[in-house]
């Protein structure tokens, strides 16, 4: 049986209209319960946390299996139809002149008919409650026979979480968390005081170890009540009282100790409430294994503390615990209901875009030969390890991309884990993000216990879902990946599941005596993780990365290559906008903007009139030709074009790559 999991918003980036509250759209294809392919829409349309319908993703996963939509047996949607229909009605009220189907199944079928070319019979469509999809994704792939299952997020459908028993018979509901008690909403509301917003929660998790939770303990303790039977009540309105002590930080203002202390108190509050619930259900059910799902389950500091507490023998957190993973959870839920067969324990998530065969990779790289030195490698793992041991920070692209928010050795930036100064260096020159943000160590599975404190009997932590303590005698050695509190978000690397990545780390170990490398996602802070070869090359050329290893090729940058020979293109989610407005002096002026679609609206970037005019002319011509035709000097044009490229407002490719 072929089951397509399909999660995303009602519109595409080609259609007018505002983004909705959906985010992290994705598609997954199961064949007889096993994953054939899975990818988030953001990897393909390059809109971070993409709110759009996952049409590219759906087409990709079906292409991987060589099937069309008409051959799919079931399409699983990870929300209830009533929730979606309320959204459709709100959209209709906002714009009654547009064409709207108020029945969600009909709306989806019309979209698939238009963009995927098949008329799907209504009986093939299955709706799965949002949190059941979260719970199914984590329990079905945990390998546990029986487990306590807890999902925690902002909200989905009409609840903010579930607690369930998982067994061979399925999932048995124990408790629903009502939306007013949403820990996800509370956490997101609180981080506004730190100048952060939705999808910045992980930054606050990284900031918390720098702070003292005692400073705001009393204030946060007033914001929750721990009730009998593992339940709780939140009082988020009391956050208003924080204004007397902490005015919200504006974006780009310095982070001070008071902000760190606030983050520490918030993290402690989250864990206090979650542990209260876990202790109750551990005692009342007798279950010794735990599965976590939902966006809050990406709080790997919390996960590590649960693991170390000894409350449970085993803890499994799905590596795609967020909403993108619900495409998988919905598909697994439908499979379970019809086939009664459970998949094997999850071992890896290399389910995305394949890099391609070596000949194809070389052909595509040669299009960039004016900008790159391209060296075939007879032993690419040894060459990559040599670069890392020499202090180089490299991009590493191999095989199929990972499903979920973590780069796990196929779309990664790799570096030496020892020099503490690498944290600031990489944050500044490549990731362009806050200096306090930690990096993760990837360690050979066989030697993980020598460098990190692992629970008794545990050897595998392949998904960066837990923060573990670094062994005290290794903390100074692993300066680039040890956080301020002596912890690290560990990834163990298996020779069986990630053979090429394992060989890189092994080669680095033989050179340095350290079986660990620094591993972070291959992207800057504006874009999703790179997916294609071309994504990787563009990120390489617009950051401070010192080498790029793609398949069996080692790439370095050519000095002085004429970037004016590149052909600029506007991505599908970027548009030019011209308007006339009256300024403060009362004069009417024309303004020129570039607008980029984001998950919560559009980001606007003002443009000088000459650059705006040049961009209106783009087609198949290189920048130098466009500038000449517009009567502009290259030194007038190139700084802005380079900036727009670095910010992914433009795609720039060689003419050979366009062909």
Describe it.
With 659 residues, this protein is α+β, with helices and mostly antiparallel strands. The protein folds into four domains: 129 residues, ATPase, nucleotide binding domain (Nucleotidyltransferase, domain 5), CATH 3.30.420.40; 176 residues, 2-Layer Sandwich (Nucleotidyltransferase, domain 5), CATH 3.30.420.40; 200 residues, DHBP synthase, CATH 3.90.870.20; 96 residues, no CATH class. Helix content is 33%, strand content 22%. The protein contains 21 helices and 27 strands. The strands form seven sheets. An eight-stranded mixed sheet has the order 13-22-21-14-15-20-16-19, sandwiched between helices. The chain has a five-stranded mixed sheet with strand order 3-2-1-4-5. Helix 13 packs across helix 16. The chain starts with a strand and ends with a helix.
Beta fraction of the residues?
15-25%
CATH C-level class of the largest domain: Alpha Beta
Number of strands: 27
Instruction: Provide the helix percentage.
Output: 25-40%
CATH architectural type of the largest domain: Alpha-Beta Complex
Distance between the termini: 39 Å
Q: Radius of gyration, Cα only, in angstroms?
A: 25 Å
Enter the CATH topology name of the largest domain. Answer: DHBP synthase
User: What's the number of structural domains?
Assistant: 4
* Low-confidence blocks of residues: none
Largest beta-sheet characterization: 8 strands, mixed
Secondary structure category = alpha+beta
Query: How are the strands of the largest sheet arranged?
Result: 13-22-21-14-15-20-16-19
Shape: globular
Mean pLDDT: 93
- Tell me the name of the CATH homologous superfamily of the largest domain: Carbamoyltransferase, C-terminal domain
């Amino acid at each position: 049986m072929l089951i397509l999991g399909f999660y995303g918003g009602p519109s595409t980036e080609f259609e007018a209209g505002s983004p909705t509250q959906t985010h992290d759209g994705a598609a997954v294809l199961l064949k007889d319960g096993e994953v054939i392919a899975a990818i988030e829409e953001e990897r393909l349309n390059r809109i971070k946390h993409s709110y759009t319908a996952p049409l590219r993703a759906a087409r990709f996963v079906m292409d991987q299996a060589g099937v069309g939509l008409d051959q799919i047996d079931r399409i699983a949607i990870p929300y209830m139809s009533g929730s979606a229909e309320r959204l459709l009605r709100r959209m209709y009220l906002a714009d009654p002149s547009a064409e709207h189907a108020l029945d969600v199944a009909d709306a989806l079928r019309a979209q698939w008919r238009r963009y995927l070319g098949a008329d799907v019979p209504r009986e093939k469509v299955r709706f799965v409650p949002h949190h059941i999809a979260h719970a199914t994704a984590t329990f079905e792939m945990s390998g546990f026979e029986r487990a306590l299952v807890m999902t925690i997020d902002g909200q989905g459908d009409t609840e903010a979480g579930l607690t369930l028993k998982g067994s061979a018979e399925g999932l048995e509901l124990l408790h629903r968390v009502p939306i007013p008690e949403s820990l996800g909403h509370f956490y997101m509301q609180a981080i506004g005081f730190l100048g952060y917003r939705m999808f910045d929660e992980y930054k606050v998790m990284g900031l918390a170890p720098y702070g003292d939770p005692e400073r705001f303990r009393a204030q946060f303790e007033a914001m929750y009540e721990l009730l009998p039977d593992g339940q709780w009540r939140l009082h988020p309105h009391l956050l208003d009282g924080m204004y007397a002590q902490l005015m919200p930080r504006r974006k780009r203002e310095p982070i001070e100790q008071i902000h760190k202390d606030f983050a520490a108190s918030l993290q402690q509050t989250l864990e206090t409430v979650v542990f209260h619930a876990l202790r109750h259900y551990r005692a009342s059910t007798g279950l010794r294994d735990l599965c976590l799902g939902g966006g809050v389950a990406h709080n790997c500091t919390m996960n590590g503390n649960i693991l170390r507490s000894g409350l449970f023998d085993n803890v499994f957190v799905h590596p795609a615990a967020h909403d993108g993973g619900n495409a998988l959870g919905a598909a697994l839920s439908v499979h379970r209901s019809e086939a009664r067969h459970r998949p094997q324990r999850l071992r890896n998530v290399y389910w995305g875009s394949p890099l391609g065969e070596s000949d194809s990779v070389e052909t595509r790289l040669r299009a960039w030969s004016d900008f790159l030195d391209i060296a075939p490698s007879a032993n690419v793992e040894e060459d990559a390890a040599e670069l890392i041991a020499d202090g180089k920070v490299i991009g590493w692209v191999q095989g199929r991309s990972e499903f979920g928010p973590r780069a796990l050795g196929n779309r990664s930036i790799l570096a030496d884990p020892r020099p503490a100064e690498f944290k600031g260096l990489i944050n500044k020159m490549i990731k362009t993000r806050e200096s306090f943000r930690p990096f993760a160590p990837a360690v050979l599975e066989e030697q993980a216990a020598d460098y990190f404190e692992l629970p008794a009997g545990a050897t595998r932590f392949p998904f960066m879902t837990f923060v573990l303590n670094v062994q005290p005698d290794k903390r100074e050695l692993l300066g680039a990946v040890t956080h301020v509190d002596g912890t690290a978000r560990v990834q163990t690397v298996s020779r069986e599941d990630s053979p090429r990545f394992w060989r890189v780390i092994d080669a680095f170990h033989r050179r340095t005596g350290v079986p660990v490398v620094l591993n972070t996602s291959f992207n800057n802070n504006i874009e999703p993780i790179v997916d294609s070869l071309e994504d990787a090359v563009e990120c390489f050329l617009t950051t401070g990365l010192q080498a790029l290893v793609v398949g069996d090729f080692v790439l370095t940058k050519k000095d002085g290559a004429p970037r004016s020979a590149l052909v600029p293109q506007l991505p599908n989610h970027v548009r030019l906008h011209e308007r006339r407005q009256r300024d403060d002096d009362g004069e009417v002026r024309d303004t020129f903007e570039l607008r980029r679609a984001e998950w919560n609206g559009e980001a606007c970037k003002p443009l000088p009139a000459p650059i705006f005019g040049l961009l209106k002319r783009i087609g198949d011509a290189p920048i130098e030709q466009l500038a000449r035709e517009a009567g502009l000097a290259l030194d007038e044009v190139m700084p802005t074009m380079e900036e727009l490229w670095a910010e992914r407002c433009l795609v720039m490719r060689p003419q050979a790559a366009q062909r």
